[in-house]
């Protein structure tokens, strides 16, 4: 008689990810009121370590300079620790941005064991609806940048807008994770530098109907996430893990969530190719990898 060695005694957290798709599982858990039970069941469903990505040309973390040759480091500016990213902060900067509301919830996990990274800090930044970045394209503003510290469940919340899409890139949000907020502002290297992708099914309709997003729809339709020079070399599982799950509508705004598992032993080098045919007109060529060797051990100009 053939015996089937199925697993029966490992509990719900073990069995559910095998029985259901990962995204469907999270919806089921939310409906049962179980998705936030210490993050255990949700973590069992989503714990694929994100690969290191380039910080791009506009990190404002002390690692590069603006067009005037000045080192740009928003992490040293008073007020960077904040939740609402839509307005500039500090006496030297002004202005805010307009766009579709996006309430972000990011969950930081240790990929080994899927445990919350309580007390870790995450610095997030992204472009506005027309693809411009503060402190570089708009030098007198520092909007759409902020630092926050994870709670006991590893969760961080930001209020921002849905970013636009510029030539040569898939719509995205940049981030860097640090062991503490103090390490972030002191210029130490991040524990993970990566990017969050936005879902085409949600941003496409936003771009098509909202004049605040300029040429974003045209730029989106000219690219695909599989051809993107950052996301294109990631596995399907990695892309799914780093893609924002969005619910809501353009009138009331969206809620976006993503789980970010960090592999502290990961290869920190970044290897990727330019888009097919090279960078299109209007693209941002600095969204390319850093020099060979990956991220520097310490940010130049940060001291």
From TrEMBL:
The keyword Oxidoreductase applies. Residues 273-303 have a biased composition (Pro residues). Residues 95-169 form the Intradiol ring-cleavage dioxygenases domain. One of its GO terms (molecular function) is ferric iron binding. Residues 267-303 are annotated as: Disordered. InterPro entries: Intradiol_dOase_C, Intradiol_dOase_core, TAT_signal. It comes from the Bacteria. Keywords: Dioxygenase, Oxidoreductase. It comes from Pseudooceanicola albus. The keyword DNA repair does not apply. This is Dioxygenase.
């Amino acid at each position: 008689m053939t015996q089937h060695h199925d697993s029966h005694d490992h509990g719900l957290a073990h069995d559910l990810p095998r029985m259901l798709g990962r995204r469907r599982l999270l919806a089921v858990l939310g409906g049962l009121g179980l998705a936030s039970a210490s993050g255990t069941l949700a973590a069992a469903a989503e714990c694929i370590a994100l690969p290191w990505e380039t910080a791009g040309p506009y990190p404002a973390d002390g690692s590069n300079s603006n067009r005037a040759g000045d080192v740009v480091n928003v992490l040293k500016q008073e007020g960077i620790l904040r939740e609402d990213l839509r307005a500039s902060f500090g006496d030297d900067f002004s202005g805010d941005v307009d766009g579709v509301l996006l309430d972000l919830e990011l969950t930081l996990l240790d990929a080994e064991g899927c445990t919350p990274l309580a007390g870790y800090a995450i610095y997030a930044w992204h472009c506005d609806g027309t693809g411009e970045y503060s402190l570089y394209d708009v030098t007198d503003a520092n909007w759409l940048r902020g630092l926050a510290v994870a709670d006991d469940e590893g969760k961080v919340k930001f209020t921002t807008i849905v970013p636009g899409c510029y030539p040569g890139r898939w719509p995205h949000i940049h981030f860097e994770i640090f062991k503490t907020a103090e390490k972030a502002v002191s210029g130490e290297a991040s524990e993970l530098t990566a990017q969050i992708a936005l879902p085409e099914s949600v941003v496409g309709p936003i771009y098509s109907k909202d004049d605040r997003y300029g040429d974003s729809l045209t730029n989106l339709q000219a690219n695909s996430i599989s051809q993107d020079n950052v996301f294109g070399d990631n596995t399907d599982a990695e892309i799914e893990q780093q893609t924002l799950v969005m619910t809501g509508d353009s009138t009331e705004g969206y809620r976006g969530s993503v789980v970010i598992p960090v592999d502290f032993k990961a290869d920190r080098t970044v290897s990727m190719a330019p888009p097919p045919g090279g960078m299109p007109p209007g693209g941002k060529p600095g969204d390319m990898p850093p020099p060979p060797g990956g991220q520097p051990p310490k940010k130049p100009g940060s001291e």
